[in-house]
Design a protein that fits this description.
The chain is of the alpha+beta class and 310 residues long. Strands 1, 2, 3, 4, 5 and 6 form a 6-stranded mixed beta sheet that branches. A hairpin with a 2-residue loop joins β3 and β4. α2 runs antiparallel to α9, α2 packs parallel to α10 and α9 packs antiparallel against α10. The chain is elongated and about 80 Å long. It starts with a helix and ends with a strand.
Length: 310
């Protein structure tokens, strides 16, 4: 019975709570807000202490990204892309390079372009492209975000590409734990077409980038000096996308926020019905204003945890 009384006190208008559910009182809403922010901070700290429990790439595998990408191409009548182990190694190296040098862009601060990674791993391309994503809970939402962006969509649905490679890395980027997905596209340069040496002409780093049709040159392009990033083994590539974890900070934050919002909306609806039915007169009621305030806080939390693409 005591449990029932406590539940009624917090969720239903009653004399014990001045005819307003306790959870809708300003003090309670403030505590809920602080609790959600604290929950987010705890997840961030725990993720560093227990990386195998709070994982950032738990639900993302390169194979799934490739499958979803090819599914979108099939919907547009395009041929599927072939998974290239060379491009996968290059993409993984690009992701590790971003973590090591602390940048979130197509071009590194030292001017290193995505095409350097293609050539460093021996992939001589005729066409090449790159999409980047970070802070997504699963492969489906990342691919959907790319498809909702005209420039990223253009890369995915480019008929000139033949191969695809995916690199998924997790670590600390600019002070925040994150997961980065690197999506490399390419078409190999035919060995017989040695006169056409590829020259990548990239767009600004704020957009997904792809190389233009190579222009003939009179002298061969020198082989670039390899970067210090070690070449991952196929086993390492597979392990990046298949780490087993129990909790994902991305999905946990979203799930808890939506759960709290749902409970508050339910309580608010019950409060409205009870007050109207019993003709309860309240001298001061700013419930809607408080709920709106809390909704703004929840929206900010979700936006901060939303994935990014470039």
């Amino acid at each position: 019975m005591r449990f029932f009384h406590v539940l009624r006190h917090f969720l239903l208008p009653h004399e014990s709570n001045n005819q307003k559910a306790k959870v809708l009182h300003p003090g309670s809403l403030f505590i809920i807000t602080v609790g959600l922010i604290g929950f987010q901070l705890i997840l961030g700290l725990a993720g560093r202490s227990f990386p195998r429990v709070l994982g950032y790439a738990a639900n993302i595998s390169p194979e799934e990204v490739i499958r979803l990408t090819n599914a979108r191409r099939a919907e547009s009548g395009l041929a599927p892309l072939s998974q290239s182990s060379t491009l996968s190694q290059a993409a993984l190296a690009k992701g590790n390079d971003m973590l090591a040098k602390g940048y979130w862009a197509h071009f590194a601060p030292d001017g290193t372009s995505p095409w350097n990674f293609f050539l460093n791993f021996g992939y001589k391309y005729k066409y090449a492209g790159e999409n980047l994503a970070r802070d997504f809970a699963d492969a489906s939402t990342a691919v959907s975000a790319w498809m909702n962006s005209p420039t990223h969509r253009e890369n995915i649905l480019n008929p000139n590409y033949r191969d695809i490679g995916i690199g998924v890395v997790e670590g600390n980027l600019l002070g925040a734990d994150t997961t980065i997905i690197v999506q490399f596209f390419g078409s190999p340069l035919q060995e017989s077409a040695t006169a056409n040496i590829p020259e990548a002409r990239a767009k600004e780093a704020a957009f997904p980038i792809s190389s233009a049709t190579p222009r003939p040159t009179s002298t061969p392009t020198p082989t670039p000096t390899p970067t210090l990033t070690p070449i991952p083994t196929p086993q390492q590539i597979e392990e990046v996308g298949s780490s087993v974890t129990f909790v994902s900070p991305f999905s946990s934050t979203k799930g808890v926020s939506l759960l709290v919002t749902g409970i508050l909306l339910m309580v608010l609806s019950i409060d409205f019905i009870v007050v109207k039915r019993n003709k309860i007169v309240r001298s001061g009621g700013k419930t809607l204003a408080h709920i709106a305030f809390l909704g703004m806080i929840l929206a900010v939390i979700l936006i901060l945890k939303a994935g990014q693409i470039i």
